[in-house]
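Aim 2 progress update. The chain analyzed this quarter is reproduced below.
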Amino acid sequence: MKKEIVVIIGGPGTGKTSVIDELIKKGYICYPEVSREVTLEARRQGIEQLFLEKPLLFSELLLEGRKKQHADALQEESRIVFLDRGIPDVLAYMHYIGDSYPSAFDDACKEYRYTKIFFLPPWEEIYSPDEERYENWEQAKLIADHLVETYTNYGYNLIEVPKDTVDNRILFILGHLS
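Predicted structure tokens:
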């Protein structure tokens, strides 16, 4: 049985969480976005926006969390495991803010590989900020560009998910899995 570790990516506010939540309802194994937990933990420690205040620390915590998710996904009994974002997302965000990072980040992108990458493109009609999302619409589009560039640079062929209902997006994704 070939294990499929499938990543769903996209800039802020593209519907990733809605797709992941619906996949969970349909019985699929899905791992949540690591950054929300890292952000909430930092707030419990009195740091309002860890990504803005200490971007390298934030990114190191994300990298460790995403490496653990990848390792855990390999141990799942299910043939397909979905992840809300992958390791190259960390580098894409570092590129977005113009910050440097240790070579271990690049090494992790090469070592931990995913089966398929589904990209949810920027979609202004559904974009809305929330408590963990500080980016405006223009910034969200730039982040999406960095995601596409970063994943492509690591040799991934991104599958763009059409702007459609959550159910139709899921049908599209499932239709592209073996």
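The chain is about 50% helix and 15% strand. The two ends are 11 Å apart (CA to CA). These observations will guide the mutagenesis experiments scheduled for the next reporting period.
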